[in-house]
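Extended Data, panel c. Modelled sequence:
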Amino acid sequence: MKNPDLSSLDITIAVSGLKTGDNPQPGVAVIRSIRAAGFTGKIVGMVYDSMESGIFIDGLVDEVYQMPYPSTGADSFVSRIDYILTKTPIDVIIPTLDSEVILYIRMKQELLVRGIRTFLPDEEQFLLRDKIKLAQFFPEKGINIPQTVIVTDPAQIWNLRPTLEFPVIIKGRLYEAYKAHTPEEAVKYFYDIESKWGLPIIVQKIIQGDEFNIVIVGDGKGGTIGMVPQRKLVITDKGKGFGGVVVNNPALDEFARKVIGILKWQGPCELELIRGTDGVFYLIEINPRFPAWVRLAEGAGQNQPAAVVMLALEKEIEPLPPYQAGTMFIRHAEDIMSHISVMGEISTRGELIKHK
């Protein structure tokens, strides 16, 4: 068992999601893990906003290209990639944002024609882990899900009792989740989420207990290439983990393997779970990409982003080493210095060549 060595690869890898800060995207962590595996080739950052802070980190990416938002559809996405390919080859793309993964799944053949490889689930697997379908699909497979109600009209919130008692969690299909103590508060969050992410809205029973997150690379056949569980130690007001520790819990590992086995998931994902006060594990979410804390996996002995690069290239790799329980991370903020002209270039031209 060993981690992949990427030092001999002469390829270009593209990674999205370069925002850091209080709610970081995974791209910067993914890139740092790839570099830690010895990769010295070109890395291209694919961004949606000229203020994504990873753009300005020295030595992180060699080139940056602004992408159209996924909501614009596949045609504009492919057109933009075709333009980027006139500037630089791309061999592997690792998307790190929920909203774009489905586009890359659906564009798999178009990307392959262009020599670009990914390691992602198929569309059926992706849709089964949708937050809307969790409560419909998994309970009959023996996976516990918190009691869930799907709402499309704020009037439904007033009729939640006695099905659900307040407080509840109200969240969007893609992003954002809030704790609502009253129907009035839930209606406010309904409109906030709807304006950003659309309908439907998910209302879920709150499970009291310990929160766990597990980063996994599935092999597409029901097994796992790597798996690292962590327990949250520091949680922000938005429920994001700002500190965590790798834990050794065989029951937790078995629960995660069962979920991946049911889905036959291929590629990276993150499971969010709660162990209730009754000792039962509840599946909260399945995120179809690496989490922002993925470097904890590297620190605990499993370089999962490096493994995904090799798997995308269809290269044989050894199983990743066992994770080292007790490894912990604490996220910190830092100021990044740059020049306004750098932001101006990506804003006006939609691209930035940092290193040729």
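The first strand starts at residue 12 and ends at 16. This feature is highlighted in the accompanying rendering.
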